[in-house]
Design a protein that fits this description.
The complex is a heterodimer. Chain A is of the alpha+beta class. Chain A is 31% helix and 22% strand. Chain A contains 10 helices and 12 strands. By secondary structure, chain B is of the alpha+beta class. Chain B has 3 domains: 154 residues, Aldehyde Oxidoreductase, domain 4 (2-Layer Sandwich), CATH 3.30.365.10; 196 residues, Aldehyde Oxidoreductase, domain 3, CATH 3.90.1170; 245 residues, Aldehyde Oxidoreductase, domain 4. Helix content of chain B is 28%, strand content 22%. Chain B has 19 helices and 28 strands. In chain B, α17 packs across α18. The chains are: A alpha+beta, B alpha+beta.
Amino acid sequence: MYAFEFERPTTVDDAVKALASEDAQALGGGQTLIPTLKQRLAAPETLVSLGGIAEMKGVCIGDSGEVCIGGATSHATVAAEAGQYPALAELAAHIGDPAVRNRGTIGGSLANNDPSACYPAAALGSNATIITNKRDIAADDYFQGMFTTALEEGEIITEVRFPVPEKANYQKFVQPASRFALVGVFVAKYSDGVRVAVTGASEEGVHRWSEAEEALSADFSADAISGLSVPADGLIGDLHGTPEYRAHLVKVMTGRAVTASA
Amino acid sequence: MPKDGGIGASSKRREDVRFLTGRGRYTDDININNQTYVHFLRSDVAHATIKGIDTSSADAMPGVVRIFTGADFEGIGSIPCGWQVTDRHGEPMQEPAHPVLAQGKVRHVGDPICAVVAESLEQARDAAEAIELDLEELPAVVDMKAAVADGSTKVHDDLTSNLCYDWGFVEENREAVDEAIKSAAHVTTLELVNNRLVANPMEPRVAVGDWNAGTDDYTLYTTSQNPHVIRLLMGAFVLGIPEHKLRVVAPDVGGGFGTKIFHYAEEAFCTFAAKQVGRPVKWTSSRSEAFMSDAHGRDHVTKIELALDADNNFTALRTETYANMGAYLSTFAPSIPTWLHGTLMAGNYKTPLIYVNVKAVFTNTVPVDAYRGAGRPEATFQLERVVDKAARELGVDPIELRRQNFITEFPYATPVAVEYDTGDYHATMDKLAEIGDLSGFEARLEESKKRGKLRGLGVNCYIEACGIAPSNLVGQLGARAGLYESATVRVNATGSISVMTGSHSHGQGHETAFPQVIAEMIGIDESQIEIVHGDTATSPMGMGTYGSRSLAVGGSAMVRAAEKVINKAKKIASHLLEASEADIELKDGQFTVAGTDKSVAWGDVTLAAYVPHNYPLEEIEPGLEETAFYDPNNFTYPSGAYCCEVEVDPDTGKVTIESFAAADDFGNIVNPMIVSGQVHGGLAQGIGQALLENCSYDENGQILSASYMDYAMPRADDVPFYEVDHSCQTPCTHNPLGVKGCGEAGAIGSPPAVVNAVVDALQRAGKDVTHIDMPLTPGKVWAAMNG
């Protein structure tokens, strides 16, 4: 690890100011960034911890019934307190291991946008709204490819608002070493249609499977997608699975998520 | 009634109290005043010529004490290899030099080029980044068959090729085996890969070198399974330090699994540099470094052919293996695919003709050496897979085919040079059928079907050669060391005992099990006996722990030394009791004159030995301390039968292990609980190899699975609750305890059970799948199912 300055502001405003300095880097729960620093693969001048900002922590219910989660809320807190959105709480309960769940935050995960992370699938599958210190961003506009988002330099995710669907479920087929999603599929059925978000599979990061959404909006059953197939083009191929295997898993996991939706 | 002490008792592991409460003292816990830290700048390419190293900027960095390069080791010895294999033509293996720091070329990712010694580790790392390397990349030699093809780039320019040796065993049988296969009623052929593994002990390697300027003595603290071997190899062959000036200490060691047997460059570096810089030098491996510097295991590519007659009797076996040595010869590397592999190819079967060919190959990869089982898992895997395949081809029950060909009379001389002293393979198979509830399989199969899962049953046997090894025999086979073990039993004045053993415990539980033996012999409480190990200054010259040898060889040395102690104590007792020595009996800590009520306690005798006021000084010396060296006259041959039931998810290819049963014959058992624990650990590592673990290289020699993000270690939920049994006991006939060793069995016997089970599941589902190479990842199984 290279030497760096460390700041722990207690308000969003102070955090924004701290992040304005040169080569400053926001630190959420540190479950990706700290190992990266230890490997000397990043060299920020200043680390700005968001962990001391009380207004960015916790789970509450918004005016329209949406589940609102502070950007610095840990996965364990979401698992315990987001019971209004059971599929989301369940997803949070199965991210990483206890250390990751107790330290890692939803804002950190969404800002990093790891192509195999779980939260991006929930956010995109729910068309959540990503609230930053500057603006509100619809999930459809937020995710822009592997490790790439709509966030600008120094912009902080202060809250994420999830509209609660009628039914939803997340199915994760884990990569056996990292236990990130080899393929994860989040299915959410809203009154105006079904959304299907896929993580782990694509070289472009989290994405929606529109053919499945159409079919499931017409008929919310696993059978509805039986005639569909996922092209392997653009899917990840690595030690743990070929693009063809991942394409197959997208369909299997989608079917299972539909069946398991409650 | 379970015993509450002595041989056969499940005494709780006393060492676990300190391990589990954070009170262990590991090498990294050792910090010496004025210590420096070393960081190794390692090659990030697999193969390159070193055109230049410029350390001028780095030398001036804050905290830098000194930067070493390969040039500093000119005239210093090469890291030695401890075993010379002779090839089919009677020629010695090709043996390249292995410098402490790279000289001229780098030969694998992780090969150390420079060593930066600094005031802190971070300063050393900073300076390493300022070193300018001029490396001219060369084509990487990765694939073994390509490596030995004409025109391949050479890993070592001064060798004639990348072939270390071409070994044939037994060479005289070669033509007879060929003939038998030609004329067989049936031949089953299987080509397979035994996947490369990284041992991944919980504690990474650490070395702290210290040099005493006043006495010119060196001390090396290191994470080793055999400190005396390190002292001999490093002192005599690398650094030229005589043994009396070099102490090697291996304190608490957090797991070894073979990978901490070997003498590594980092150990020699820290010892050497301590004198050069006049300060202690410490190195602590990171997990990332461990993946590219700890010796790897396995990595065989094999073709095996099993010939059967019309009655399904095995008539001949022929196997050809390419064994990866990596870029340099690690300490015992040449012996693993030969003498620890070829000699086991008979397995549990009376196959009359066997020929084993092994081509050991240099590649631009991390050196490969022993990993839990070491050669025997590779032998067992190919044999038990081909037997299973044969049964399926012939439409006969895999268990019955095995039983039909079992060796049943002992001693049994195999056609591959070893003689099994005892065993009862039908007994372990019977026991397996019972604990694995094999007769209930069909019902479980139906239940799985109802849930849409494909269930399979895999069964196999194994035999291993442990208790390594008779020194005169291994000497003939090329070992450059003896493989005896030593012990000193030091009885203290008040009767407590310290046993200094050359065996080393790094998780095996010696500190608990060894005292049980002494307690049984003398009849005193186990708590009165302490095991001292891991320090060349306190223990007699010993060969350390590997090859499931500690109790069989080290325990035997301890028994011999204890016998000497007891004989002397009886002499003292006979004096104190004024009786004939021949009439003295020792039981429950009391010396009694046979047939009388005259007795004297153990503690009174030991006190007399050290306070010899009333003592026959003219006949016997005072004191009560004896040393014994024990050299076994054969290997031991643990054996067993294992079964595994799996479910395969037909939609994803994911394999789950539903049950695993192991019926082992380890001969006599000292501590059944520790034995069960050893089997559990071995099974977890064997299941890990079968389903999860794989050290994968790309064509450029980069490790693709160089961290836990991609190298899958088995976790608790990857393995089932095990059914283990070791009640089948045919005691070893040639060591005093009748023990055989249990440390490696689980890792040897389990991979074929898992693969046999998956193949069984797929064939029952009508899939035309005869083999899948390990690890059986979901993606591979799905691809196999779907053609």
